[in-house]
Structures are given as structure tokens and as C-alpha cells.
Inverse folding.
């Protein structure tokens, strides 16, 4: 369980119901939202009534060919328009015309071959976030697809089942490309997970969170590093939707696909959710969670049992952290509970067994920092350096296990830390053991100002040059990124 002590170390206040902010109120605690007022998306922008549109579910992309070992897909990146705000059309960047992109459902041990066609007017690069893939299929920021060209990515899926996602990674363009829509889920399943009997089919629902700013025409407004004005909260591409649920257990596969926004989520009645997985797959055991904490790029796999509620209950998923007015960013979506139904699903006490931790033989230190507001600077750094595509920052010997100490040295700005290629284990947060929801495999970890985490990583899959970076993706575009070379 996430205790008060753990909550304070994460930056949460008493009872795990708020967040300590950066100086100047950047990440202020929010009061309980009413859930009734209309929310203006920005000054002069159209008002949106919360909980007025149903939650859409992204389409599952079907392979055009299946063999005994491999599924083949084709995806086209293009510019199109969608109704995001009710009654308005917004130009967006899409995978196969969908906002967000379609979901690929892959299987562990079964290869997926995805041909990505770039029908846009600028270069792109498709990264499978959380995937264990060689350099040629990692989708690195300098390894781009030119306009009018295509690239075929091969994913062997030699890793446990997990909630992964794809997104653009073209350097200096990734921030705006992802903001305007180039992202989608990649759900990797496996037989061991299937045997657990957890909610599935119509009762396993993706929830892709993000935010944006819109002008008075409904156009999406992009400004680099603008955390303040992106106050329209969307789930699966629609603002503040509602979802009709039956009185039974549901499994939710949640992704924070925002560029900058951190979410601290709770149910409006204060009841607990049950987290069963994080970035790299299932947790060892279910973790009762009064709140879910997700920074950009992080995923949470959790279960809510709606059988505990009377039919007709309306349950709001609230957000407890800014920036932004509580009537806008303080709520995310609403669950409308229907009649109780038969429910054969379960959440077993044991979900998976994690391997024993090897003894690390190398220790490294990484400091994340960026120019503070009002200083006039607009760059971000790892160990005092901005990204240089020609520089190798970290030399790693293949097969080694390493201990990385990562500290957020910024005074007012949160960051997170994402590694390509490898999942890691979080050993400590500010010198203390992590709470159960952080006990599984991770590829992205949140650090509020002044926080330090210790990570253990083993480099025993692919050789080559891979990046690590802040996944508050505007920060990485501003230079908070570096290269590691595994030889």
C-alpha cells in the first residue's frame, strides 16, 4: 500500500491527496473538484461541459498477414482532422487516421513486423517505448523516415507481457509531433498472464491520458515547454469523457501520453484501486492504491471492482495536481455504474515472480537539471551537458549489471528519467525502499525537485548506441538527453 511516508517521498501531502509544488505554485495542490462547471480550454476558447461525451476505445489494428511466427502490419502517418472538442474539427497528426493511434495487440515470443509509411511533410521516427529491440528497430531520434518514404520495424517481443506504446522520436520535432497526435498503444500479452483469469475482452479497457491547449477555432496550440496552458484533459482523444460500466471488475491499461503533465489520480469516493502492473509488466503482487502517480511516458495497469457500488453511482476519476484551474485539470473522466452482472474474473494474490537482483559491478551518477523560469535560459541538461548526437556519454560493457543514481537538481521543475532498450528496478527513493506500485519492472521514473532514485539495470540483450532522457518530452527536445553505447 502507498503509505503516508511513501506519499511524502513522492511529493504528496498528508493522506496522499495532494502534491507539494515547485516554487511559484507550478505544481500546486488542487482542492476536490465539483465536476459540474463548464471548462474553458483556454482564454477565448470554446467551453466544454465535462462528462458530456462517451469514452471512445481506440481501434485494434488487425495484421494484414499472419504466419506461424509473425504478424504483419502497415501504418501510415498522415495529417487529418478529428472532432475532439464537441462540434469542432481539429487538425492532428495520426497513425492510420486515428487520434490517438490504433492499438497493436502483440504476443510475447511472436514477432510483429510493422511497416511505417511517412505521408507527412517532415521526418519522423517511430519508437516502441518499453520495447527491447536492436538499434535498427529502436526508432532512435536521429534514425528518421523521410517524407514520402517508409521504414519497416521488426519487434521480436522477447519480453514479458506489458503495456507498451509507440510514439514519434524525431529529434527537435518529437515534442510537437507527439503533442499533435503521433502516439498509440502496443499491448503485449503472454500465456502466463492469460492463466491468471483477470478481467479481459470488453472488460480490459485502455485509458490514454493527455492534455492540450485549443484556440477559439478549436485548433490545437503548441508552444514548447508550456505546462500552464494545456488545460484540456483528454482520455482516448476526447475531453473529460464518461464511461458506462457494469457492476463487476474492469482492468484498465493506462498511459500518460502527455508531454509535460503529471497526474496524481484518485476516485472521488476515496476508495482504493488495485494496481497490478507498471511499465514493464505485472507487479509481483496486487498493490492497493489510494492514488495512481503517473508522469509522462509511465503506465499503470489497475483494476476497479464496480460491484461495490449501487447502480446509478457516478464516480469521478480526479486529478490532484496542477498546474491549471481545478475545474479543468482536477477531473479526468467519470464512470457511470450500471447493474451488477456475473463476474468470473479474479485478481490473484500472486501475479508474477521477479528474478533475483544480481550484484552490480558498476556505479554511475546522473544529474537532471534545466534553466529555471525567469532566468532567460531555455536549455536542459544531463550531468551539465545538453544532447549532442555525435557524443557518447556512457560506455557500457555488454552483460554487466549497473547501479545508477539519478537526481533531479532542478529547484522548481519535476523531471523523469527514461531508458531505451532496458527495463530497470527501482531500489530506493530518497534512501528509502519504494512502495509496492514501483516494485516491478520500469523504464520511466518520476523525480520531483530534489529527489534521488537508485536504479539497477542489466545490459544483456542488444549492443549498440541507445538514448536515455527525460520523458517530459519537451525537456528532452531542449537537450535533456544522452547516448549510451553497449559494447
Amino acid at each position: 500500500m502507498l503509505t503516508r511516508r511513501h506519499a511524502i517521498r513522492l511529493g504528496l501531502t498528508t493522506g496522499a491527496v495532494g502534491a507539494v509544488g515547485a516554487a511559484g505554485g507550478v505544481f500546486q495542490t488542487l482542492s476536490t473538484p465539483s465536476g459540474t462547471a463548464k471548462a474553458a480550454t483556454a482564454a477565448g476558447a470554446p467551453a466544454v461541459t465535462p462528462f458530456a461525451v462517451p469514452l471512445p476505445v481506440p481501434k485494434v489494428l488487425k495484421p494484414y498477414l499472419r504466419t506461424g511466427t509473425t504478424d504483419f502490419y502497415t501504418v501510415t502517418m498522415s495529417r487529418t482532422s478529428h472532432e475532439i472538442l464537441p462540434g469542432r474539427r481539429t487538425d492532428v497528426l495520426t497513425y492510420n487516421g486515428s487520434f490517438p493511434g490504433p492499438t497493436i495487440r502483440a504476443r510475447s515470443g511472436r514477432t510483429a513486423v510493422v511497416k511505417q509509411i511517412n505521408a507527412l511533410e517532415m521526418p519522423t521516427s517511430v519508437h516502441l517505448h518499453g520495447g527491447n529491440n536492436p538499434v535498427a528497430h529502436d526508432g532512435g531520434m536521429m534514425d528518421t523516415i523521410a517524407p514520402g518514404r517508409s521504414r519497416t520495424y521488426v519487434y521480436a517481443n522477447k519480453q514479458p507481457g506489458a503495456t507498451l506504446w509507440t510514439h514519434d522520436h524525431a529529434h527537435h520535432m518529437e515534442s510537437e509531433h507527439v503533442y499533435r497526435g503521433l502516439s498509440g498503444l502496443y499491448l503485449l500479452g503472454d500465456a502466463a498472464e492469460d492463466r491468471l483469469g483477470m478481467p479481459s475482452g470488453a472488460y480490459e479497457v485502455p485509458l490514454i491520458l493527455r492534455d492540450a491547449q485549443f484556440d477559439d477555432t478549436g485548433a490545437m496550440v503548441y508552444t514548447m515547454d508550456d505546462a500552464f496552458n494545456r488545460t484540456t484533459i483528454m482520455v482516448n482523444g476526447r475531453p473529460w469523457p464518461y464511461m458506462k460500466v457494469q457492476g463487476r471488475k474492469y482492468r484498465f491499461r493506462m498511459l500518460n501520453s502527455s508531454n509535460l503533465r503529471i497526474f496524481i489520480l484518485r476516485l472521488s469516493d476515496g476508495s482504493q484501486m488495485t494496481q497490478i502492473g507498471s511499465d514493464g509488466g505485472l507487479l509481483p503482487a496486487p498493490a492497493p492504491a489510494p492514488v495512481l502517480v503517473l508522469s509522462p511516458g509511465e503506465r499503470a495497469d489497475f483494476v476497479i471492482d464496480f460491484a461495490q457500488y449501487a447502480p446509478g453511482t457516478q464516480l469521478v476519476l480526479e486529478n490532484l495536481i496542477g498546474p491549471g484551474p481545478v475545474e479543468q485539470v482536477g477531473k479526468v473522466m467519470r464512470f457511470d455504474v450500471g447493474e451488477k452482472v456475473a463476474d468470473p474474473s479474479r485478481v490473484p494474490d500472486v501475479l508474477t515472480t521477479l528474478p533475483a537482483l544480481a550484484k552490480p559491478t558498476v556505479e554511475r551518477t546522473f544529474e537532471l537539471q534545466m534553466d529555471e523560469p525567469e532566468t532567460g535560459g531555455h536549455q536542459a541538461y544531463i550531468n551539465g551537458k545538453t544532447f549532442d548526437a555525435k557524443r557518447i556519454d556512457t560506455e557500457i560493457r555488454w552483460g554487466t549489471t549497473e547501479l545508477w543514481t539519478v537526481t533531479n537538481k532542478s529547484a522548481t521543475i519535476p523531471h523523469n528519467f527514461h531508458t531505451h532498450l532496458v527495463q530497470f528496478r527501482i531500489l530506493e527513493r530518497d534512501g528509502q525502499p519504494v512502495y509496492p506500485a514501483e516494485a516491478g519492472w520500469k523504464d520511466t521514473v518520476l523525480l520531483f525537485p530534489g529527489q534521488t532514485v537508485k536504479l539497477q539495470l542489466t545490459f544483456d540483450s542488444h549492443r549498440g548506441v541507445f538514448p536515455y532522457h527525460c520523458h517530459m518530452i519537451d525537456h528532452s527536445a531542449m537537450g535533456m538527453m544522452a547516448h549510451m553505447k553497449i559494447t
In short: The longest strand covers residues 70-82. The domain at 4-51+197-340 is CATH 2.60.40.420 (Immunoglobulin-like). The chain has three domains: 4-51+197-340, 65-194, 362-486. The radius of gyration is 21 Å.
